[in-house]
Here is the input.
Amino acid sequence: MEMAVIAFFILAALSLLVVYVASPSIYVQSLSVTSSPADRYPVPVTLFLVGILAVIALLILGVVRHWRWLFWLLLLAFGFSILAIPATILQLTGIIPDSYPAWYSLSRMGIALLEFGLAARMLQIYRQYGVWALGKKASRHA
Here is the structure.
């Protein structure tokens, strides 16, 4: 499980970088940054990307060190990511306004599916082996 979550975070970091290189306007639009057409990579967007990459590095460290609170946080975040799928479908059908390109919305939906799969696997592993598969604590019966 640990390797799957780390691989997911590496994939997320790479996808952030790909979007930054391919279409930095998505970040500009999301952050409501005003930039000139000549400034393809505005400084606030670059700093935001560096900050997100630092958070991902911290999350990877937490996974390696088996932080229990991080397990539960990731389980909740990954589990609730399933809500992005109907939202994206509503955006693609025009029911909800979407200002992002279709390829970006579809990639977000794919990532949400992957996250939900990780949440399901994390829950299954927790039920069998405990948090981060480190084993369950013996229950104390007095």
